[in-house]
Amino acid sequence: MIVKVQRHSQRYNENNNPIGDPEFQDVATGVHAFVRYVTGQLRQEEPGLLPTSTHLVRMQNTVGVLRPNDPTLSKPDRIVLNGRPYQVDAIDDIQFPGLYQIQLSEDMR
After folding, report:
1. Low-confidence ranges of the chain (pLDDT < 50)
2. How confident is the model at residue 102, as a pLDDT?
3. Cα(46)–Cα(105) distance, rounded to whole angstroms?
């Protein structure tokens, strides 16, 4: 699947005052990824899944996705699948060397 990665950001003027409302900006577009829908069977096979996870995405670790607990983020990154936004909840970079396995949940922002 071709996905898009977005990051929540705020623009500022020269006096460091916010300009407009915060919005999601594209970080990476046209990213090739392997996407799996989280089913009951997958939950049995992968015990580390979060209860809110709806999709598992595998993509190269060269894509600029940040972990949800990164101190530079105001809100977790977002991945857009088929035009629908999903929130990045967890990133595993150990299970598959060179790849991120990302858990997504419905984005309610």
Report:
1. none
2. 96
3. 16
